[in-house]
Amino acid sequence: MEAAVSRPAPLFELQHTGATPVCWSYGMGAESTAGVVRTLLDPGFRPPELLEDLSNLIVMTAQTGDEWSSTADLVERHVLPLLRQYRVRMVEVARAGPAQRDGIVVLQDTRTPQRMHADPVEHGFFALSDEHRGNGVLPQLGGSRKCSSKAKGGPLDVWRAREVGSRPYVHAVGFSATEGNRIVGDAAVTLGGQRRAIYPIHAAGLSREDCRDYLHELFGVWWPKSCCRQCPFSGGKTGWPEQLARFQALPAEAAPHLADEYVTVALNKRSGLFGPGGTLREKLELGQATAVLALAEEAIAAADWALYRVRRCYSAPAAAWRAVEVVHRGDRLSATLLLAELADRLGRRPGLRHEGGHTRLWLAERHGDRYPQVEEFYVAAPAQVHDKAREGFDTRWRTCVGEDLLDLEDETAAALIDLTGTSAPTSAESSLFAATNTGPQ
Predict the structure, then answer these.
(1) d(C-alpha 56, C-alpha 213), whole Å
(2) How far apart are CA 157 and CA 138, in angstroms?
(3) pLDDT tens by residue, 53-81
(4) What is the pTM of this model?
(5) Strand pairing partners for 59?
(6) Domain ranges in the chain?
(7) Which of 42, 138, 180, 441 is most enclosed, with most CB atoms within 10 A?
(8) Number of separate helices (H) and strands (E) present in the chain
(9) Mean pLDDT lowest among 97-106, 220-229, 424-433
(10) DSSP letters of 3-61?
(11) Cα–Cα distance measured from residue 17 to residue 14, given in angstroms and rounded to the nearest whole number
């Protein structure tokens, strides 16, 4: 899928000149903004492959769908006029859907960019938060920044491969002077010698603060960090004050992510946005971000709700396969009342516990440090998570649970039929569910 775009002349006419494409990855933050702007204004900063008229320069941006609108506004005000002035080709892309086969959306491909296209609803592309919302998860604090690779690196790679083909190209990345570790991993990606990565900001010895100072001197504004509104890396001592100010300034943009965290924590009480650093809600309450808290609570209360059945089979303390099923849909009151009625019908009131803003009915909990272990519970929350389980989940589940829990699952299914006319799959039926809902959890 591609948006209607105004394309420049065929690939910078480089097929005839033999010039090497120079691709600047532009994430809209301080470092890459300083790198792009200085490339335009300072000939001594340019790589030797760059032509004097900049005709072989491509500034490339991938939209995640969750960038703050204030960042896009700054780019439109200060960077795009320079790109137009120097007739530099700008390409802006995004994902068309959750799977690689869905392809990409080309939001613009032009030498006269007028605006950025950060809003996925307005511009028709798939947001990273859409994927997380449907799966009932948030970006993870640990690991290898897979969300960035998927939402930014993936669509940029697709576009570049299609446009550049097998030709060698220079890839400029805005890592700062303090990001040597990231450069080590990135520089190893050479695509068989086709890609030559350069790091102009790092090579110039510029820190993030140096880049901000440079941009402030040019434009009179303090350039913010580019990040998704739900970025887990924004909760540290240095990053949180800036992020909190954005939550306070743009509550309508921020509220959906607070609601997403509410649902995610319902399905996993250990899954707050900032991991061991706590939840987004806790930080916003401490920062007295009352407007966004109120908007999120209004959205949560007004949403369609579901009663979810959640199962996990653990092979180690932080290694689990998960299955999520919707067993009832209604409003908030009907879902929460059904949970209490189900506990009464099963005679399991002690298993109905209020924990961290959610009430869960526990059928099985983890105990001790021997694995494998399982947990199973019912919880009410807004109805935005799809039924999903990894392929083979039911087989693994049955090898980990005893007959007592299987009998209790059948009793629960029968109780739900009595209470609602619908049921969670019984222990005998759940294999159908597991076979038809696959994918990572």
Answers:
(1) 28
(2) 24
(3) 999 999 999 999 999 999 999 999 999 99
(4) 0.89
(5) 24, 90
(6) 10-219, 232-302, 305-436
(7) 138
(8) 19, 12
(9) 424-433
(10) ------SGGGGHHHH-PPPEEEE--SSHHHHHHHHHHHH-GGGS-TTS-TT-TTEEEEE
(11) 5
